[in-house]
């Protein structure tokens, strides 16, 4: 059931040019949840920080749990929304990978908003509420499956095996590492992330690195290369123990 709209809530932007109430609530919740965690952040504190009516939280989001869920996907978007972009038919693998990385790295242009989102994800892992499992399905598993299918199609791999999963996870990890190590990059070489153009260079480079990984995986999957790979530990003969002299 849709809640009745409180007469005191106005969804239009205020006359002073500040964002509408829903946006202010979302941004205030992101900041407070990332700093204090879910349990220690109250609805009243969020409303006060957003300069909004407490009833606005109920109207726009339903409850605290729904608001918490919204801050994981709305401020920076989500990986699931990228699937239709990088899986379009007719794109070369290089084009598809550039599209994938441009979308995955776009949040890096958001500055402090990006930092708060990273802190929020880290805090959720340390103080789990169950949201992480839901995010895993939408923002990790589904994009992973889409990337996996894309790679298999372009590499003409009929059966998905562990090595294809390794390849897809490693490619996705390029973007994740830059997300999680943003402050390290800024400390070492700040100009690598200080403009949208700089982030776009990362996307093009990562697409090139990913293509190199694909080429390497194709070489490893060749029969001659497979024959030269060391056997698994379970298949190796155990070493004989030396008899004490």
UniProtKB/TrEMBL annotation:
<dbReference type="GO" id="GO:0003700">
    <property type="term" value="F:DNA-binding transcription factor activity"/>
</dbReference>
<dbReference type="InterPro" id="IPR009057">
    <property type="entry name" value="Homeodomain-like_sf"/>
</dbReference>
<dbReference type="InterPro" id="IPR001647">
    <property type="entry name" value="HTH_TetR"/>
</dbReference>
<feature type="DNA-binding region" description="H-T-H motif">
    <location>
        <begin position="42"/>
        <end position="61"/>
    </location>
</feature>
<feature type="domain" description="HTH tetR-type">
    <location>
        <begin position="19"/>
        <end position="79"/>
    </location>
</feature>
<dbReference type="InterPro" id="IPR023772">
    <property type="entry name" value="DNA-bd_HTH_TetR-type_CS"/>
</dbReference>
<feature type="compositionally biased region" description="Low complexity">
    <location>
        <begin position="223"/>
        <end position="236"/>
    </location>
</feature>
<feature type="region of interest" description="Disordered">
    <location>
        <begin position="1"/>
        <end position="20"/>
    </location>
</feature>
<keyword id="KW-0805">Transcription regulation</keyword>
<protein>
    <submittedName>
        <fullName>CerR family C-terminal domain-containing protein</fullName>
    </submittedName>
</protein>
<dbReference type="InterPro" id="IPR050109">
    <property type="entry name" value="HTH-type_TetR-like_transc_reg"/>
</dbReference>
<feature type="region of interest" description="Disordered">
    <location>
        <begin position="223"/>
        <end position="245"/>
    </location>
</feature>
<keyword id="KW-0804">Transcription</keyword>
<dbReference type="InterPro" id="IPR036271">
    <property type="entry name" value="Tet_transcr_reg_TetR-rel_C_sf"/>
</dbReference>
<dbReference type="GO" id="GO:0000976">
    <property type="term" value="F:transcription cis-regulatory region binding"/>
</dbReference>
<dbReference type="InterPro" id="IPR015292">
    <property type="entry name" value="Tscrpt_reg_YbiH_C"/>
</dbReference>
<dbReference type="Pfam" id="PF00440">
    <property type="entry name" value="TetR_N"/>
</dbReference>
<dbReference type="Pfam" id="PF09209">
    <property type="entry name" value="CecR_C"/>
</dbReference>
<keyword id="KW-0238">DNA-binding</keyword>
<keyword id="KW-0678">Repressor</keyword>
């Amino acid at each position: 059931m849709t809640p009745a709209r409180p007469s005191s809530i106005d969804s239009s932007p205020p006359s002073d040019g500040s964002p509408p109430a829903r946006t202010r609530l979302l941004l205030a919740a992101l900041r407070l949840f990332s700093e204090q965690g879910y349990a220690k952040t109250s609805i009243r504190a969020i409303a006060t920080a957003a300069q909004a009516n407490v009833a606005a939280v109920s109207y726009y989001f339903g409850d605290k749990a729904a608001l918490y869920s919204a801050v994981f996907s709305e401020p920076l978007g989500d990986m699931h929304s990228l699937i239709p972009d990088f899986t379009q038919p007719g794109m070369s693998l290089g084009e598809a990978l550039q599209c994938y990385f441009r979308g995955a790295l776009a949040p890096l242009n958001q500055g402090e908003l990006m930092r708060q989102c990273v802190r929020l994800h880290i805090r959720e892992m340390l103080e789990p509420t169950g949201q992480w499992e839901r995010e895993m399905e939408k923002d990790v598993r589904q994009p992973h499956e889409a990337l996996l299918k894309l790679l298999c199609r372009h590499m003409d791999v009929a059966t998905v095996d562990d090595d294809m999963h390794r390849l897809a996870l490693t490619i996705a990890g390029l973007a994740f590492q830059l997300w999680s190590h943003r402050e390290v990059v800024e400390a070492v070489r700040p100009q690598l992330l200080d403009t949208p153009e700089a982030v776009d260079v990362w996307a093009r480079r990562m697409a090139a690195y990913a293509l190199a990984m694909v080429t390497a995986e194709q070489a490893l999957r060749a029969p001659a290369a497979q024959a030269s790979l060391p056997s698994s530990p379970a298949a190796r003969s155990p070493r004989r123990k030396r008899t004490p002299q």
